[in-house]
Amino acid sequence: MGRLEGKVAFVTGAASGIGFACAQRFAEEGAVVVGADLDTTDDWGQIEKVAPAAGFHSLDVTDEGAQNAAVAAALAEHGRIDILVTAAGIASGGPVHLIEQATWQRVQDVNLTGTFLSAKAVLPAMLSQRAGSIITIASVEGLEGAEGGSTYNASKGGVILLTKNLACDYGPAGIRANAICPGFIDTPMFRSVIGDLPYRDAIRDQHKLRRFGRPEEIAGSAFFLASDGSSFVSGVALPVDGGYVAGHAYGIAELFTQ
Ligand code: NAI
Q1: Alpha-carbon separation of residue 110 from 87, 107, 113, 115 (angstroms)
Q2: How many angstroms is it from 157 CA to the middle of ligand 1?
Q3: Position in ligand 1 atom list of the atom nearest CA 86
Q4: Is 142's C-beta closer than 6 angstroms to any atom of ligand 1?
Q5: Which of 72, 123, 238, 243 is the most buried (most CB within 10 A)?
Q6: DSSP assignments along 64-75, one per residue
Q7: What is the overall mean pLDDT for the chain?
Q8: How far apart are CA 93 and CA 103, in angstroms?
Q9: What is the pLDDT of residue 6?
Q10: If we measure between CA atoms, which residue out of 28, 1, 17 comes closest to residue 9?
Q11: What's domain 8-257's superfamily in CATH?
């Protein structure tokens, strides 16, 4: 029997990368998984091969009405939502003096406001259940600054504090909220942003394991936060980053580990 048997999960950004890996892992663990994404053309069909998937919604997370409608449809069909994962997100970069306001706004809208709207949509059901686990996908870039990251880092820092506030506000109702802060994970987003740029290896080597992560490694942590194994964990911003934020890397460790 799967360890998420009987639980219903709502996952945004489920068509690709980290969201897809979370949906797949939850399905393998026996959850009923409702996925949502702007893009309905990607990998979703593969989840149905692993476990019977509950459904997939075409959804722009910046659209409050669409979020509410997707959650209402999931509730009508399955009666409850136990787990929310907010993996929908977009990358962006550049120094402040070169960023158009519209670009800044779009990143905040998708990454931060989208997370807010997803939480807002599922909270009434979680409040009436007196239980729920909200898992936001933030980033190591929400924990610290990085060259060229301004708009993205600001959005992810916002996601982390929003998540901590959710933990504060809804803990008395038995609802947990935690943020996962991935390091650089090999997904379509990562490949489109990092590709084979000259500083790729420098970024890789900030991960103390000296490699990039895999989507299923984020899904493993999401599974922990979704499951009863984390029943006393709330308000945490969990780096899942191969040691990226553990400290500075200069290459000295190679002198005594090779
Ligand atoms: P991805 O690009 O593979 O997947 C993101 C998904 O979000 C896509 O399927 C896309 O269609 C969807 N999406 C984008 N805008 C949307 C919108 N307005 N409404 C609904 N869906 C929308 O990217 P990846 O890497 O899987 O990213 C997932 C999350 O993890 C993002 O929030 C990202 O910022 C975060 N993250 C990713 C890292 C990485 O290195 N890949 C590192 C840290 C955080």
Answers
A1: 10, 5, 6, 8
A2: 16
A3: 32
A4: no
A5: 123
A6: HHHHHHHHHHHH
A7: 95
A8: 9
A9: 95
A10: 28
A11: NAD(P)-binding Rossmann-like Domain (3.40.50.720)
The pair of structure tokens assigned to 112 is 């931060």
* pTM of the full structure: 0.97
pLDDT for 86-102, tens place per residue? Answer: 999 999 989 999 999 99
CB of residue 87 inside a 6 A radius of ligand 1: yes
C-alpha distances in Å from residue 120, one per residue of 2, 25, 61, 134 = 28, 24, 11, 11
Contact 188, 255 (CB under 8 A): no
| 20 alpha carbon – ligand 1 mean position (Å) | 10
Is 244 considered catalytic here? no
Strand 55-58: give its sheet, edge to edge. 55-58, 32-37, 8-12, 83-86, 132-137, 175-182, 237-240
> pLDDT digits over 99-156, tens only?
999 999 999 999 999 999 999 999 999 999 999 999 999 999 999 999 999 999 999 9
Return the structure tokens found at 10.
Answer: 């709502």
